[in-house]
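User: Quick one: structure for sequence A, then sequence B.

Assistant: Sequence A:
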Amino acid sequence: MPTPSAPAPLVSVIIPAYNAAAFLGETLDSALAQTYPNLEIIVVDDGSTDATPEILESYGDRIRVRRQTNAGQAAARNFGARESHGELLAFLDNDDLWDPEKIARQVALLSRFPDALAVYCDHRAINAQGQPLSSSGALGYQRASGDILKAMLLSCCIITPGLVLLRRRAFDEVGGFNQSQLMRGHDDYDLWLRLATRGSFIYSPDTLVSYRRHNQQATRQKHHEMTMARANLDSLMAIRDDIQASEDRDLKDLFAWILLELYIDSAWALRQMGKLAEARRIAASAVSQRPTSIRAWQALGAALKPRWKKTIP
């Protein structure tokens, strides 16, 4: 915690909400139950058509509500950040829950590492009814602390935005969440990746977040799986200049390998979605990057074949 003579920094909690009536009340209650004394909670209603507005109204002036025409989570998070005043930012999804000490512990940790851009904690998984599915995610996902860029290239070690507390200045410097259509459902990984090229993330093994798994969440949808490689490819291209400027040879080699894998995976996924022209372009880029890769040539060969539709007699 800050020293007694130092004021507690304001933490802005931003919650995007689109047709979130099923879980929103529990999420808001967990945010309002934080023991940290200096908090503002901003909910951005992203064009909901269910009972979300009524639920938000029932909380009165304990929260601030902003509304926008439906534009996706990234746009809602960016809108909330613009409307906020905190030195520190926390993004909580409308179906996840925080333990009461979550923000207090993370503010204390961030104050111990003044050069760090962000801190993140661990999570437990719960189901739609709030029952525990796992006590910790530490064994299922790679964890890294300090320079997390290599770990992030291999896999996303921050499974949900609610794990993170970050400095506003860092968020503003990288331009916030990417609001493009392609990045819908993938915008958090894209942000962490860009931030990781700028500075350190401090990991704490404290399990302070309940990450809810249910059939309606974006990461469970087929479209999310089909677009992941293509979105991640764009995310890597956005940091390519930073990687090339690095003197870390291992980092450059890892980046080149991951980039090739994403070119190949993207080409296959695009072909499955019927986007043959883009699949051919991406596969050709894979071959250009690594002409000796059999998998790259296989992806290009598949992309060049037309996809025949079955005719029904």
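Sequence B:
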Amino acid sequence: MLRMLETVSTPWRRGPFRVQHHRLIFGQTYEDYGIELRAFRPRSRVFAIAGAGSTARALAAAEHRVTAVDINPHQLAYAKSRAEGGPGHAGAAEQLLAFGRGMARLAGWTQRKLVEFLNLSDCARQIQYWDERLDTPIWRAAVDTLLAPRLLGLCYAAPLAASVPDEFGRRIRQRLRRGWASHPNRSNPYAAALMLGTAPVDPGPSATPIQFVCADAAEFLESCPPSTYDAFALSNIGDGVSQEYLLRLRNAVEHAAAPNAVVVSRTFAEPRPDTTTNWAALDRSMLWGVVYVGAITTFGEGGKECSIC
């Protein structure tokens, strides 16, 4: 019964995009692993969603003992290859972002403007440049159109497309502007990765070996002995899944967690009015509505689509 529930309610099994399951989904990580490095106690035993592997590698480079788990065998193999020094490749996410950057060029985002903007280090100047030269009416209309539910549904699996907040284009524009106001572009590799498609700074070699496991997150954690992990880097695994699966995941995390374990999770959803813990403004990748950092007891309270409390 549990396996049937997992299959029905976990869109990540087939991937977030309307592409063939055997394709690579993420060639890069669109999350600031500085959040996890700041939140986790030294040399923690960490459960991490593998994704493109950058977060797991950064944590292992900082001497955390990392288990990287992904339900997609091709994504996991890619993350393992990257940890062994293999080259980066573009996945489905990068192909979509490249299309978006092409549309931005049509809206006047020339290479010269972007390089000039990304070389700024004064946040006040960044906001001025953004408002005057990049955040144009054509750009705003293009983003709002491309991120409208109907068009998202052509690229994303239905549960993921349905999970994004209303007026998603406007939300993303607001999050970008928040990022320009908070983080100097010149020292923010995520800004260049997003706008130019350049690879983020490599986290460096691992100081401890990473264990790579192909499995569903909840199923794997259910199989672990109690108190196995001190920290959990869950990416945005809660986006687009059912409340039943989220409850199962939270119970599994709680089962595998050591006392005082720390959870980091992300969501594209907007924060709820009662949200008290949100590190989204500190995440230099700038895309997230909620970055939850805290105890398991309040994990999932940040956004309507990831609430399991």
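The longest helix spans residues 92-106. Residues 42 and 64 are 7 Å apart (CA to CA).

User: Thanks, that's what I needed.
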